[in-house]
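quick one if you have a minute, typing this from the bus. below you get a single protein, a line of residues and a line of whole numbers that encode the local backbone shape. could you go over both lines and see whether the tokens make sense for that sequence. anything you notice is useful, everything is just below.
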Amino acid sequence: MPLRDILARVDADLAAGRVPVARQRLRGLVSSFPNDLMLRRRLAEVYRLYGEPAEAGRWMYLEQDRDASETTAFEARYRTAPQRMGALAWHGPESLAPSAFARQQLAAVRAACSDAMGHPVDWDTVPSNRKTDGRGSAFADFLAGTGCLVAVLAFLAIWLNGLVALFD
């Protein structure tokens, strides 16, 4: 389906109050066209409707007329350069960016990420970072794993108790 048709559907979804559907369509478009700043801007507008300044800042990060509070919220959620690089979801070299400001932003994030990683990185090989959304922690992962282990052990204990009772 042509891009203009999908954008017409986004407009219809927004007019009908189907904001989650519009957001999902725009997320898909940004995924398919990661270097299109107009799509990123539209996605940021939808996140403003949700009251999500960090996500609005994420998608407006490459725009010179971005809102400073949204940028601050984005940088607070995605604290490290590798997290920001992953969150920006850019593909290809900075030279593909349609504005000098976007090229500068992308180059700065990539350089900071390279410094943090200790080796050069580029946008097509974004550092492996499971936590690109800036949430979660190793401790939370440990607790989740421990909870699963306890559940499996409890199930086995009940099963063995039933098996012993069966043969008594």
